[in-house]
Amino acid sequence: MARPLGSDAASDPRLLRLADGDNVLIVTALIAADEPFLVDGVVVRSPAPLPLGFKVAAHDLPEGTVAVRYSMPIGRTTSAVACGELVHTHNLESLYMRTHARGEA
Fold first, then answer.
1. Which CATH code fits 3-94?
2. pTM value > 0.70
C-alpha cells in the first residue's frame, strides 16, 4: 500500500514509497536544488531540483542495478546513482516491455 515515508520512517514527507522493497521513491512536491532532505534517515542534497512525480534513489544504486517502483522492475541504471539523486532517462535504461508496435501482430 502506498504511504508517505514520513509516517513510518525518518524520511521527507515529500517522498512516497509505493511498495515495500522499492528502491526508487516518488517526489510528491518540489524539492529545490541543494535543499537538504531525508531519505531513510540519511540527509542528502540533490544538485538539481527534484520535480513533482519524478523518481529519486532510496539508497545508492550501483551501475547495472534494476530500479524497482511499485514492486515492478522499471529500468536498469546506466551509471551509479547516489541516494536521493534523480533517477531518470539520463541514468536509467527502460525495462518496460514494448506492448504496442505499429505493423506487428
1. 2.30.130.110
2. yes
